[in-house]
Amino acid sequence: MKVVYLEDVPGSGRPGDVKDVRDGYARNYLFPRRLAAPATPSYMQQAQKRARLADKHQSELDSQARGLAAKIEGVKVTIAARVGEQGRLYGSVTASDIAEALAQQLGQEIDRHLIRLAEPIKEPGELAVTVHLTRNVEATVQVAVVPES
Questions:
Q1: Cβ-based burial of 148 (10 A; exposed 0-12, middle 13-18, buried ≥19)
Q2: How many domains does one find in the chain?
Q3: pLDDT given for residue 144 in this prediction
């Protein structure tokens, strides 16, 4: 079934996209949640308007995020953690810890969900961590985990 996306559906489509999807997915998921509609000319026009508005909004978000990315890029954050005799941390350093340290250093709140950390840091050392500010803007921060003295 051909559908036109009215809203952003991660991994599936953006507003204005026209795609072929399975009938059950369209009827049971997309249509009831008003994420997509059948690909008729009227819905296509409506989706194109939404897509233009979404693009404009995204460009505004990107311009704001670029300013923050310029501040973040190249910043080195040091986090002190307790280390055992084996050289491993007692706990771990998580995205929340990094966001908190980054906020203290920059003086601006950073949401922990924006920090892309594959798994919590369990050993001391340096690591480059990506901060995903928007769909199109990312920044890299250097995180140094040092033993607590």
A1: exposed
A2: 2
A3: 94
Which residues of the chain fall short of a pLDDT of 70?
none
Sheet bearing 2-5, strands edge to edge:
18-20, 2-5, 36-38
pTM higher than the cut 0.85: no
Instruction: Label each residue of 89-110 as H, E or C.
Output: ECCCECHHHHHHHHHHHHCCCC
**How far, in Å, CA of 87 to CA of 84, rounded?**
6
Among 21, 36, 61, the domain boundary falls at: 61
CA distance 100 to 125: 18
84 and 20 in a single domain? The answer is no
Identify residue 141 by its one-letter amino acid code: V
What is the per-residue pLDDT for 89? 86
| pLDDT the model gives residue 129 | 92
Q: For residue 114, what are the domain limits?
A: 73-147
What the block records as the tokens of 95 is 């995205």
Residue 73 confidence (pLDDT): 87
Q: The domain spanning residue 12 has which CATH number?
A: 3.40.5.10
